[in-house]
Amino acid sequence: MRALLAPLAFGALLAAPATAAPPTATFPPELAASIDRSMREWAEANQVPGLTWGIVKRGEGLVHSGVSGIADVDAAHPVEANTRFRIASMTKAFTALTLFDLAGEGRLRLDDKVAAHVPEVAGWGDALTVTDLVHHMGGFVTDDPWGDRQTPLPEAQFSALLKSGVPFTRAPGLVHEYSNLGYALLGRIIRNVSGQPFETEIAKRRFRPLGMAATSFDLADVPRGLLASGWRWEDGKWQREPDMAPGTFGAMGGVITTGPDYAKWVGHLLSAWPAAAPGEAEAPARATVRALLRGEGSPRRMMRPTQAAISPCAVAVVYGGGLRVGDDCTLGRVAFHGGGYPGYGSYMLIAPESGWGAFVLTNRTYAGPAAPTWDALIAIREAGLAPNDVLPLSPALAGLAEPMHKVLTTGDVGNAGLAVNFLMDRDAAHRRADIAAITAKAGRCPNAPGVSARGSLEGEFWWKCERGMIIAYALLAPTPTPQLQALEWRWQPPKP
Fold first, then answer.
1. Structure pTM?
2. With respect to CATH, is domain 1-389 assigned 3.40.50.720?
3. Percent of residues in the chain assigned helix, strand, coil, to nearest 5
4. Neighbours of 106 (CB within 10 A)
């Protein structure tokens, strides 16, 4: 299910004026206006009839949203907040999380052979595991756009396809290769394990608990006049894409939803962060959500999408559970996914460690609104609204503050509890010389250090000194009592 951005000359678009929900008190109006302008400019440049977008903040939900353009080219009906869009492959995360729920309940294992749950696979797909399918490592050929057109395939025809055998393009488990067929198989596994159609099981576990009443897999559930009909731009005019009924391949891309409903899903994903500190209890469901970001396979590099002329950042990406996962040079850890479909294009992006997300839904074939989605979160970060979560300070690190101050002021590392390797790696005399050299640059540091955690057993101690700052990175050993296994010093000169 593709999410391709195809630059097209802008034609005669019957565009309705953009409207935006007033930003909440935590979202600056000038930033909201800038994001809205970016969305409209992208839509105009890419021949998009209509779109809706939203910004989600952890714990607050939808803090800003907007709509622009038309939901139906023939009727010139404007997009409204309750207009429903197909979100294509952004469906996959709903499917993956439902599968993880079933695994957590002991009803299957992720390392199970697929044939144990889908008998039609036996004989030709005996090596396939459930995990291979989750991470697109089943060895199936990339099947866009063939897979999109299979959405309404009836169960009986899918069974016949599987019984006849599916060719592999490579051995399972080697590399990531995107497969809608693989996620259709996951839908069949959900059906066979739960005893319910995958649509029913996903709605029960995902849509209803989140209050996503306007979300479903079936166009028949959409009230008249509320659907953003799907269009493609061809031969200088809009062409209506045919609607597709629900079917077996819906598990890979069949969800229909609204902006406000999808915002609830994004908020649900963000709510799983930050994780509880080691030793503290938390609901198992939060850890299950975080498992969507556990990727497999070799990373693939992509340039960060942007509307700017040049992308400043390459992102190494692996595939998690219905989400692509990477590390961005500005946003840090990110999870994202596009949804390309005949008549529709969508995109979502979350930065879980700062608690923000953004999404865009459109009604143009394979529109791929990645660039304005990334630009929105980058703008939020650069406005200073999205600092990363502050990790709680463990007793082990907090208890090291006073000993570390003695180490700095006396030069004697023996003031801290040392792991067996510490003086073997660099003896006490050389460590005393390291401290003397850095205090010569920084001058006196009279007060005890501040402490910031990188984890429960690693962190930074920092002193405000006469001439700048001293920062010490400390790494504790995995021993029952806190012991220092590594210590590195650096001096940060005062700002001019």
1. 0.93
2. no
3. 30, 25, 45
4. 7
